[in-house]
Amino acid sequence: MLSLDMSNMKDKKILLVDDEIDILNLLETVLKKEGFNNIYKTTSGNEAIKMCEKMEPDLIVLDIMLPDIDGFEVCRRLREFSLAPIIFLSAKDDDVDKLLGLGIGGDDYITKPFSPKEVAFRIKAHFRRCEYYNLKSKPQGKKVIPFGDIEIDEEKGEVRKKGKIVTLTFKEYKLLLYLAQNSNKILSKTQILDKVWGSDFEGYENTLMVHISHLRQKLEEDPANPKHIITVKGLGYKLVTEES
Fold first, then answer.
1. What are the chain's domains?
2. pLDDT at residue 132 in the model
């Protein structure tokens, strides 16, 4: 049985990005009461990107409506160099916005008005999942999973294509690794969502489709006619190795 050590949670660096100072201060107060010591704040999207480059936060709470660039654009730029979980905040309870946010690399979506306690709960849940995943993915024997010209290095948490590192988001990496660990097996959409996003994820199948599309764009020679990441109509997905 895996034993989660969450004692280092208080040292996690959390970046709060919102143009409303009152919301930033309220979230900071609640998170500190919940035991988080390293809280950083900004009201600007561009400043958030600069801060992420310097401080490398462990998690980002990101408002969509910002005065300079919107949260979606901030997320796109962050995903060029950061795998930190991103929780979107939005005044819009719109499925399109949710799918867009999750599709471009976000990990969660909270609609305003919200309870600061809920935000703290979601943050803790993400850290627990990351810790659990790190424990589960510690290599047991086979450390590198190859297929075609792609290699997944479980020990380093890296994916290489033709020897060059491919930048994936945390969710993209988890999705690819789960498919690869069950290569040549059909996995249902429910199985994948439960494993990669968690059983309490209130998401949609479209979220999974977007992430599959991103993986194909990054890994397949012809994303429109994938060789490895295959859709099995009506059943789910599977990762096909070259040998099969």
1. 7-135 (3.40.50.2300), 140-239 (1.10.10.10)
2. 60
